[in-house]
Amino acid sequence: MIRSYRSSRGVALLIVLWGCTLLAIMLGGFAMLARTEGLQARYQFAQTQAHYAAEAGIVRAVQALQDPDANARWIADGRSYTFSFDNATVHVSVSDEDGKVDLNAASDQVLVALFVAAGVEADRAKRLSAAVQDWRNPTEGSLPNGAKKPQYEAAGLDYGPRNGPFATVEEARMVLGMDPKTFATIAPAITIWSGRERPNTAHASPLALAAVPGLGPDQASAILAQRNDTTGSALAGGNGVTHTIRAEAILTDQTRSILTATIRLRGIRSGTQPYAVLRWREGDGE
């Protein structure tokens, strides 16, 4: 009888110990889950803060591009502007689209020079230029060294050229002969929104300047040097209406957000939106 009683007490003790162990494991799991959810919530909150700080950078650039004071107006040549917003540091750069090579309007000479400046061998640069022109050309006949539907089929591709204007900058990836490295190099210097045969030297990047016919390296260097020394209203007043704005917001804990928007200014008039968004990207990818 005594043995049976002691045995029952031993079993009960084991059950209690196992129960305590399971309870401790469950409590530990709940604590870990709560900690993880707390970290996720803080991360999401910080990301949201950074995102809206970057959006503030976009809006700040739009306002600064249209500042009534010409001396305070931002210059759209890719230079960086920095300001504080809440607990974030925001870096903003603005590039005027008229300083880029327009895929839908650039001449053969400009396109060839762009590809050569991007490191493409001369003969291949000529073929790429012809392929770009054939992509946007509505006729069925191809240029010498160009590419229409038969050339795309011969390359094993199941598509052909648009035979119309480029709809997006990224569409250039699809042009026959365009490789990822070349596209990544030229992407910051190309546009579909300027309508110009050649880039405007007042806002062009070094790569776009290299595509301007008749402009040698020394002249390009002189333009860049003069631009860096210019802070007055003359250059600011020369901004166009279509710009790409890149805003990067960095919080004190190093959380960051990057937004890139191509916008078209509409002017500051009562009852109208001051700008239209043509392209919007989040993150640092092209």
TrEMBL record:
Keywords tagged on the record: Cell inner membrane, Cell membrane, Membrane, Protein transport, Transmembrane, Transmembrane helix, Transport
Example of a GO cellular component annotation carried by this entry: plasma membrane
Sequence ranges assigned to domain T2SS protein K first SAM-like in this UniProt record: 102-193
Taxonomy, superkingdom: Bacteria
SUPFAM superfamilies: GspK insert domain-like
Cell location: Cell inner membrane
One of the GO biological process terms: protein secretion
InterPro entries: GspK, GspK_central_sf, T2SSK_SAM-like_1st
PANTHER family, sorted: TYPE II SECRETION SYSTEM PROTEIN K
Membership in a protein family: Belongs to the GSP K family.
Name listed for the protein in its UniProt record: Type II secretion system protein K
Species in which this protein is naturally found: Luteibacter rhizovicinus
